[in-house]
Amino acid sequence: MEDGRVRILFLPENRYITVDRGENLLKAAMLADVHVNASCGGAGSCGKCRVVVEKGEVEREPNPKLSEAEAAQGFALACRTRVLSDLEVRIPLESRIGDKRFFERAEPQPAVGHLLSADEWEKRLPAWEPDPPVRKVHLKLNPPTLDDNTADAERVKRGLAVQEGIRDVVIDYRALQRLPNLLRQSGWDITVTLINTEEERRVVRVEQGDTTGRQSAIAIDVGTTTISAELLDLKSGEVLARASDYNAQVAFGEDVITRIIYATKGTGLAKLQSVVTGTIWNLIVSLVEKSGVEYGDITHLVVAGNTTMTHLLLELNPRYIREEPYIPSATFFPWTKASELGLRIAPGVYLYPIPCVASYVGGDITAGILASGVFNTDKLTLYIDIGTNGEMVLGNREWLLACSCSAGPAFEGGGVKHGMRATRGAIEQVRIDKFNYEPMIITVENHKPVGICGSGLIDALAELFLAGVINEKGKFERDLPTDRVRVTENGAEYVLVRAEDSATRRDIVITEVDIDNLMRAKAAVYAGIEILLSSMDMEVGMVEELLMAGAFGRYLEIDKAVTIGLLPDIGYDRIKFVGNGSLLGAHLAALSRGMLSRTQDIARQMTYLELSKNPDFMEKYVSALFFPHTDLDAFPRVREELERIRSERKLYSEGGG
Amino acid sequence: MEDGRVRILFLPENRYITVDRGENLLKAAMLADVHVNASCGGAGSCGKCRVVVEKGEVEREPNPKLSEAEAAQGFALACRTRVLSDLEVRIPLESRIGDKRFFERAEPQPAVGHLLSADEWEKRLPAWEPDPPVRKVHLKLNPPTLDDNTADAERVKRGLAVQEGIRDVVIDYRALQRLPNLLRQSGWDITVTLINTEEERRVVRVEQGDTTGRQSAIAIDVGTTTISAELLDLKSGEVLARASDYNAQVAFGEDVITRIIYATKGTGLAKLQSVVTGTIWNLIVSLVEKSGVEYGDITHLVVAGNTTMTHLLLELNPRYIREEPYIPSATFFPWTKASELGLRIAPGVYLYPIPCVASYVGGDITAGILASGVFNTDKLTLYIDIGTNGEMVLGNREWLLACSCSAGPAFEGGGVKHGMRATRGAIEQVRIDKFNYEPMIITVENHKPVGICGSGLIDALAELFLAGVINEKGKFERDLPTDRVRVTENGAEYVLVRAEDSATRRDIVITEVDIDNLMRAKAAVYAGIEILLSSMDMEVGMVEELLMAGAFGRYLEIDKAVTIGLLPDIGYDRIKFVGNGSLLGAHLAALSRGMLSRTQDIARQMTYLELSKNPDFMEKYVSALFFPHTDLDAFPRVREELERIRSERKLYSEGGG
Predict the structure, then answer these.
(1) Are residues A621 and A565 in contact, defined by beta-carbon separation less than 8 angstroms?
(2) Domains, in order of start, for chain A
(3) For position A118, what pLDDT does the model report?
(4) SS3 for B55?
(5) CA distance to partner chain A, nearest, from residue B610 (Å)
């Protein structure tokens, strides 16, 4: 296999999957849609996920549920086993709940789910060389004489003009104040750091000698929930360190609307500004500590965030973002001194906020469109980033059309009885046996389950629907032969984890109310996609590539999302994960002034479609309040899958039921 | 006469002069070179300056030395009399010391001394319309809708582009923060204030409604000794108020060199910066109080100062200005937030420092060259500004050549035994009778004499020389029939004011040492002028116009300055006073972006000639250590005057001696 990837063949299903070396074996099974009993989410406490490693190498974590003698025979607890080489793994009968015979018919096939590799990224972008928007230039100047008595500042400008052809330069006040002594101490041998963009040529720092070999920048994705950052070496373009943390603003409200309301009261805006700056500063400290880079080598920060996050970071009034007609203070932002935002960094360090498009299509989307190369492709591409809001962009190198719909907090675990964010113990993957309705779960960090996060909910919905536990309207079948479905005074619910296996010692359930909330969220996203397409006189089938961005997209299982009708049924091979497109876009803009300038072009060219008052939106939304959709013809693969499962179930009930 | 000017005919001299209505009659006599006894400097205490007003109207200040009966007969004390109309004034014998007969030969002739009038200024400049570099634009914007949901900032930019054709605008952070609420409170009817120059288009303030009718700016001349400021109405271009005060930095040293030394020690620079800002702030308060303009209507400040003053104001390191090869930190400066310099003014108010040329040719000279139209004339012009340093510029619309010489503090009253600045009680004008060597003096504000200021010293030198009290080398003739010249242990001296008439109750004298200091100062200036000319292969006679700038130039009597050889003898009609050219240049740049842009052209185009190492300078300097010069042929009018006086004295001694 190519470097770092290994292939696992699961028996008796005869299904294989390619994963990263070191992957958890239970996760690999789940990705391959191979059912292994697992009730504790991967915590290693139930001992039910026992498998036999028939070929290849694994690393077993010692566990009281598995003796050394058993390990010597090839047994392993899937949830406590890391994959080290290509493998053949057999799922013994006791670790499976269903009958094996149906699986044996399947040909070896790859499981779906494709995160773009670095190479694939590269191909999507136009050729570019590292040429950072903030640049260091080493200057060896002639010392002044009585005959050549140009002032210090003008001598530096002359040097930049003669040596680099850079003209019309402004020198920052602080740099100018330091310049005279520095020039003389250094023997007229200095390095100037300058913002070097089309709009601005500004010397922001001067140093002694040649420091051009030492330059780094930080790319930051300021998400509503999570802030992620990368420290980049500008010579090599390499990522020297990564760090992420919750946005400390979460304490003031989970979603952008709550924060806008907080910001418009009293000193709320200043408070939110200082809090997000605090998180960013902690990340910078962590990046510096991890990488060993010096603070003084950091020359600039590039930040991508949604429109509200960008406003709050810059302490701009966000109030009118949430009031019709939804107008931000600004969508383009100048280079801003990081120290003026409260970051305790040298005064010569500037921050560039990636431009936004509209109140609900922010710099994170602009950055994602840059990073994923949508602006550079001939293919009709649909770019989707789902969080509290779903942002969708349709287009190619010729045009870009964007919209946003309020998905509500359901996909982030909000408004769902046992919903939670994707933190430790959150159920992130779910399988439900189509015959006996028993669940298989994996939790974040393999801890005992605490609740369910967004991707787990979508999995659960899709699986409950495919297993026939819920119908097209999202209502439970109440007469199934399982005690997992039960009726309470608030309606029916499905018990995903029983109290004895949960970290909370209470049952973890999915209710009809939860399903209703999720149904409305997915309907809004799908209706948004349809509006984008119809406003261009296009249809779903014409989409050549669908790119899923965002942390949610990273863990989402595409086929499950298609099954419930969140994503259009356009063929799994056309769907790719872009991971954190916002961070990657900020990363590119930090390395290349050409890329930075593209973010401006993208934000300027993108047309924003306001859905809230679109007369067709409501109609399309109502049609989407179905699993997968009222128009099943638009979901051929889902129909096929449903038919396959029905026939399997029929065979099963005829054969051994 | 033309408005505000009156003509006075003095009898029996038969000499007339044109002065402003309201002028002091003693001053008028002095300007006309008509001798009136005056020992108390115009304080009204000696009663010796009695004259007869034969025709015309005057205003007499009541004085115990003049009875009402005498006033009714036409008598007046010249020093306590204001001129109200054209006059004929007779100087009675008792008010004159010399014999009258020599004067009677003179034809009526105008006295010299010509301060350019506003009209004359106007003619020197290219046509320009008020079009301030900081401009207010009234915008009535369309409110946003769901279909036109451009962000607030971009809506304002769009308005500026559509309505005014102003593009690539940056909006200042503070203005941007206020923008959203302001737009909505104002009903989308706002006035934006923007810096609108070639290099920069920056919105610095936003206000509700149309405030374009209210805009003012402040022009400031930051002198080493005095700071002068004008508050300008930008609609009419009128000066609404004027104020000036001593630069509070004087407490830290009288000249720029002392201040540079102070600035390079410890926190000296910050101290000097805050002190000059304090003086400027006091002037702003005073201008606002005088004019009734609101602080909020002030949109910008334009400052002209010498290179050191500009550095100290901006807190830039001035150290290398005084160390060979004399290099400033910068000569061009960006628009700077006034609040960042410590001025307690709105954050949207920016300050523009007029660019400098070199360490000793500053923004004050650039401004003066602008204001006096030297950059716009075909005439070969010599522009001179004398203070502690003498700055000289030679050129025309094609080229400009500048130099600076250290004149020493003598012209500002320093290094002279009874020297003082031109404050109350300073002797500013002096006449010495050619026959009996008695002086006639006028003091600043007509108070009892305290000491002698620069213009008084030059007068005294010229008069002592013409009267034959000192010789060409500046040494006293020790055998004259007067007790005014006496020899002390430190050399000879002339008693200008006797103890009984002085405010200090001590004699006020001019010593040989004083004369030696002044001789060296004037020699340096004249040698500088010669170097400028010779480096262009030109001669003094080719200078078509000589412009004297600065406070010193304002009070200087041209013929006296020529007599001692400070200024070249090019014909008095070619010599003009420009007054405070620095302030007037700042004034023009505050009103017109075209004029402001010219200051940059001027600073860029002016060639600076360093005198200190020029091999010819020393030779020319030594030749100038003579009254008026070793080469008397270069001073034909002075030679003529000397010959006339000698023949008069001969006649006098023959006739009545």
Answers:
(1) no
(2) 5-111 (3.10.20.30), 134-208 (3.10.20.880), 366-406+526-639 (3.30.420)
(3) 63
(4) strand
(5) 7
